[in-house]
Amino acid sequence: MSQQNKVPEVEEELHLYAKRKAVYPKAVDGIFRRLKWLIMAVTLTIYYVTPWLRWDRGRYAPDQAVLVDLAHRRFFMFSIEIWPHEFYYVAGLLIMAGIGLFLLTSAVGRAWCGYACPQTVWTDLFVHVERFIDGDRNAQIKLANASWGPEKIAKRLLKHAIWLLIAVMTGGAWIFYFADAPTLLHSFVRGDAPFIAYATVGVLTATTYTFGGIMREQVCIYMCPWPRIQTAMMDEKSLAVTYKDWRGEPRSRGVKKALEDGLQTGDCIDCNQCVQVCPTGIDIREGPQIGCITCALCIDACDKVMSQIGKPRGLIDYITLLDAEEEAKGHPRMAIRKRLFRPRTLIYFTIWAAIGAAMLFSLGQRTRIDISVLKDRNPVFVTLSDGAIRNAFTVKIRNMEARPRQVEIGLLGIDSAKIWAEPGERDTAQRTVKLLVPPDSVSKTRIYAVSDAKAPAREEFSFTVRALDKEGGSDSEKVIFDRPEGQ
Amino acid sequence: MAEKKRIDEPTGTETVGHEWDGIEELDTPMPRWWLWTFYITIVWAIGYTVLYPAWPMLNSATAGVIGWSSRGQLDKEMKAEQDRTAPIRTAIDATPIEELSSRPELIKAAIAGGQAAFKVHCVQCHGSGAAGSKGYPNLNDDDWLWGGDIATIHYTLIHGIRQPEHDLTRFSQMPAFGRDGILQPAEIADVTAYVRTISGQQPANAASNRGSAVFAANCVACHNADGKGNRALGAPNLTDAIWLYGGDAAAITQTVTNSRYGVMPAWGARLDPTTVKMLAAYVHSLGGGEALPAATNAAAAAASTADAGNTQEVNVAAK
């Protein structure tokens, strides 16, 4: 530390911009590495496969299981169909995702960063491609320093080609969430897909290639706001990857010699494995830092070394700040139950679960048919030749099911009132009007209501809608019937 | 102030040379990206003033080499809109007015087009909601002076109301019974009472009974014996609840004394036939539109463009 704090010499040039130090993470195996493989496989499978899942909704609705149909303003998710006015479900899901992240962070620290964040997953994938072509860390460094020759050119071309291929597929998969996947794939390959599809793939290809292949840990350290926000979620009871300096220090490379010299040694043999495997290129032994995404690869690396030199595992380990203090003093760790169930996590969980429960409840309660009525305001009423008063309304019936439905529009209140739908005639006016509403659509009907003139100038009543099939469902909306003043 | 420009050691930047109480100001150069953006805007501005109208001259401004103008752009947009609507307008044009209602896609477009044209040409008298006002008929209701089926409305629109020097115009003229001395004020008061009785506004009394005789002697020729009027003559129904000039005693007295003489332009001479057709469709759609008389189809089609007498006979016959 003291070295970094020394006053720079006058000739030394100061820069606001520090050039990136290349990171060549070394391959490692262990329990956390395997967990990362598993999570990578699951998340990438979900991402690439989801748009291709089918879900039968009958002949009037798309059969794609998950579809964000922006053009028709519908959001399909398996058996749930969401209309634009129900967008709060999507907002609720996003809020749940946010609070879920808070909960996760306060309980297990930056687990999202280390395992599930797309930046981490794709960077990991790109790193493996690099390793497959260039070899492990040492070979990569050697190749980077080698002068340009046929072999280096070939390897670089191959690596970037595979990266680009992954990037194109990543961008490509994204667009299938927004249209029927097989159809879009055909037209995409034929070249007659909408411009926005190509533009989206282009942009996502560029970002995937740049973020996963070139920028990597810089995205986490410099660009991402989440590590900064995360600090507010974490406390001394959150898990963090920690180097147990009380056990490891003083480091020694030559343990035998140090013992001979009568010097004290810690468990750390300064083999630098933890630094070499780190995908963000940090030294965890310097303590907790923003560059640490808690991917735990250094734990795997250190555990291996510890077993080789016959020391207990866990010189670098997941541990809370509080436990670290206790353990340094030789006290036992806090029980996991006590650590997980504390006010902070419980409050996060309660909020998260309450939103989930409220959404599930309202999802169960929602009707799939509703009515909205807009009254004509110019003119507000029309006197007919027999003295009766006519009001006109634009009635919208929303049929949110994927089948045509026969419905009946009726009146609640004003006993003398009768209605007819355009283009009908007043002779056909009744208390109800029957309509066939097309599947998954809004039908707009102009409805005339006629009533006696001898009544209050403003009278409230309701339009009701009732589905005539056996599943039923109904809704109503209050409106005003206007008459001339002083009748 | 003395010029004491010097290189500031820690930053390596030149100072501006001023000094206040030992405080100096660095002459830090503009960032490169900013400077280049500035140069680009200058180049852009020069190109812009050459290509587009820009420099003010005595009478106008330089035209710009690509010849753009805001009027030109408007013309282009109007032309594009006309091209867009041309097919449907042609189709509406080619469809006889009687058949328009049976062509859903055409009637929908015609009503929309008519609504737009109504806002330009008709709202001055009939109001933006077509509800009219005193002397200007409400087009939403079910009472029509000359008939409310789409072909009759179309005819009224084309030929207008009481247009001088236009033979086919809708024309009717009620005598000014008071002003011309045909009826005495007492008789007018009696007939007013009678009209208010048959329209259900007041119970029968001595005055209205006397008025009945006045009505039979002077009014039935046009308004019919039952007071229900005659659409062939444009004579209003006096028994209903709708009054173009008001149904109270004062208004009726005024009408009988001085007569009324509302006019409407002959739109056929002012607007293109398609627009007039669309206006007819719109007015017919406002809630009071009547069905075409069953007996007419081909006959009415011919009559609507032929003379007024025929159309009205047909309509009356169908009533």
Please describe what this structure looks like.
The complex is a heterodimer of chains A (487) and B (319). Chain A contains 18 helices and 14 strands. Chain A is α+β, with helices and mostly antiparallel strands. Chain A has three domains: 21-89 and 100-226, no CATH class; 235-334, no CATH class; 369-482, Immunoglobulin-like (Sandwich). In chain A, strands 6, 7, 8, 10 and 12 form a five-stranded antiparallel β-sheet that branches. Chain A has a four-stranded antiparallel β-sheet with strand order 11-9-13-14, with no helix packed on it. In chain A, helix 3 (88-108) runs antiparallel to helix 18 (343-365). Chain A starts with a helix and ends in a 5-residue tail after the last strand. The relative contact order of chain A is 0.10. Chain B has twelve helices and two strands, in the order E-E-H-H-H-H-H-H-H-H-H-H-H-H. With 319 residues, chain B is mainly alpha-helical. Chain B has a two-stranded antiparallel ribbon. Chain B has three domains: 1-55, no CATH class; 84-169 and 263-318, Orthogonal Bundle (Cytochrome Bc1 Complex, Chain D, domain 2), CATH 1.10.760; 185-238, Cytochrome Bc1 Complex, Chain D, domain 2 (Orthogonal Bundle), CATH 1.10.760. At the A-B interface, strand 7 of A face loops of B.
What's this model, at a glance?
The complex is a heterodimer of chains A (487) and B (319). With 487 residues, chain A is an alpha+beta fold. Chain A contains 18 helices and 14 strands.
| Distance between the ends of chain B | 104 Å
Give the assembly state of these chains: heterodimer
Our count of helices of chain B gives 12
Mean pLDDT of chain B: 89
- Average pLDDT score of chain A: 90
- What is the strand content of chain A? 15-25%
Would you identify the regions of chain A where 5 or more consecutive residues have pLDDT less than 50? 1-8
CATH architectural designation of the largest domain in chain B: Orthogonal Bundle
- The CATH class name of the largest domain in chain B reads Mainly Alpha
Question: Can you tell me the overall shape of chain A?
Answer: elongated
Query: What is the distance, rounded to the nearest whole angstrom, between the alpha carbons of the first and last residues of chain A?
Result: 93 Å
Radius of gyration of chain A: 33 Å
